[in-house]
Amino acid sequence: SGEWGKVETLLKDFEEKCATPVGKLKQVADAMTVDMHAGLASEGGSKLKMLISYVDNLPTGDEEGLFYALDLGGTNFRVMRVQLGGRERRIVKHEVKEVSIPQNVMAGSSSEVLFDFIATALAEFVATEGDDFHLPPGRQRELGFTFSFPVKQLSIASGTLIKWTKGFSIEDVVGQDVVGELAKAMERAGLDVRVAALVNDTVGTLAGGRYNNPDVIAAVILGTGTNAAYVERAHAIPKWHGLLPKSGEMVINMEWGNFCSSHLPVTEYDQNLDVESLNPGEQIYEKMISGMYLGEILRRVLCRMAEEASLFSDYVPSKLKIPFILRTPDMAAMHHDESADLKVVGNKLKDILEVPNSTLKMRKIVVELCDVITSRGARLSAAGIVGILKKLGRDTLKDGEKQRSVIAVDGALFERYTKFRNCLEETMKELLGDAADSIVIELSNDGSGVGAALLAASHSQYT
Ligand code: ADP
Ligand code: MG
């Protein structure tokens, strides 16, 4: 029909606006490096907050004892206990329980409701501790709290929430010390546990990654949201006025999700998504990359194509108008569909959008859109990682040096969206050339939870 030409025009136009040629990615990487410097120079000096974590020592391998961890930062929240066996026995035992957070707790509730929910889940979990976990008599249980939102840390075990991201919105927590709030809720729940460390998931992943591999220098989260942390030289942090740590190092939580640059290929779909989001004007880089948003970008493009170019013939699925109805895991399943008739795509269109009889031509457009959106996200993530490597002077090969740089990556987007992951890895090679041989991107499955437990161990009141 005459309309199909319009579908192809919209697709081509979208593709062009999303383009990330190497030259552009290098500009993005350079802008990231520049903003890192600015964020380290002064408080509020950059869109990148470059938060000081108070972690100036990463795990050594000697950590020992029973420690708990809490991981709050996405749709699920996890409680965990780890029995650490020291240098020889490493992680002796490790148990995790995942609890999903009700929508009405995540947004619009109160600090008390949120932290009571968390403390109650933790209390139930502690009650199931078996005989294979050992707490020396007379000792208090200790916990690492992974809290994956921007926090102004006041010490290793306290910090105030700067703002919510990723669909969370509970007004009265902003500005509060989240450890204090958790401690009060634990007391209400009759639970005697000390919070020994408050860490961002990036910092936890870095700690967990380092425990397994001494070459780990940075960590990246690619899950519901995206963020990164890395090890900085303490004297390269002008805004730090405290004592220089003995190690000479400090872990920095970049909060890179809030990165923004005129070099980012922002389309009108991204702009509309942003304006209608819970946090307009914020987390622009995150909104182009992470799992919470990729499916939603796809929905917006499909909606426009259905309305203006009859993508699904005369039928405009009303489901397509519901924000966030297309989730990134469904998008990945369609993108990975290898069948000749794109059966998976057809089924998803039917089940989620109630498009009963999609043609192969329609399904191919959907797959093409998945590819455009996901490639852009993966390539922009790679550019961000290169920005960190540049800041550290690790983006080029040095004569005679055999320096390896390992980036620990956690998050289901990277772990399960194979095409995203492959594209990210390919792009690293495009950007770094031969130097890519010395860079390793390593999956650190659930590293952030174990990392928080390890940091609780190194900041225990008993050591
Ligand atoms: P969080 O980031 O919340 O700590 P995860 O690392 O498990 O948790 O990431 C969850 C996010 O990853 C989901 O919001 C979803 O967008 C994305 N995701 C989960 N499974 C897949 C998948 N199979 N393919 C693509 N993305 C996925
Ligand atoms: Mg996580």
Automatic annotation (TrEMBL):
Pathway: Carbohydrate degradation; glycolysis; D-glyceraldehyde 3-phosphate and glycerone phosphate from D-glucose: step 1/4; Carbohydrate metabolism; hexose metabolism
Gene3D superfamilies the record matches: 3.30.420.40, 3.40.367.20
Residues of the Hexokinase C-terminal domain: 218-457
GO function term, MF aspect, one: hexokinase activity
UniProt keyword Cytoplasm present: no
InterPro entries listed in its UniProt record: ATPase_NBD, Hexokinase, Hexokinase_C, Hexokinase_N
A Pfam family of this chain: Hexokinase_2
Keyword tags: ATP-binding, Glycolysis, Kinase, Membrane, Nucleotide-binding, Plastid, Plastid outer membrane, Transferase, Transmembrane, Transmembrane helix
CDD domains: ASKHA_NBD_HK_plant
GO terms of biological process kind: glycolytic process
Domain named Hexokinase N-terminal: residues: 11-211
Reactions accelerated catalytically: D-fructose + ATP = D-fructose 6-phosphate + ADP + H(+); a D-hexose + ATP = a D-hexose 6-phosphate + ADP + H(+)
Enzyme class: transferase
Its membrane topology: Single-pass membrane protein
GO CC, any one term: chloroplast outer membrane
Enzyme Commission numbers on file: 2.7.1.-
Record localization: Plastid, Chloroplast outer membrane
Function, as annotated: Fructose and glucose phosphorylating enzyme. May be involved in the phosphorylation of glucose during the export from plastids to cytosol. Seems neither to be involved in cell sugar sensing nor in carbohydrate metabolism in tuber.
Family, as annotated: Belongs to the hexokinase family.
Protein name: Phosphotransferase
Organism (species): Solanum stoloniferum
High-level lineage: Eukaryota, Viridiplantae, Streptophyta, Embryophyta, Tracheophyta
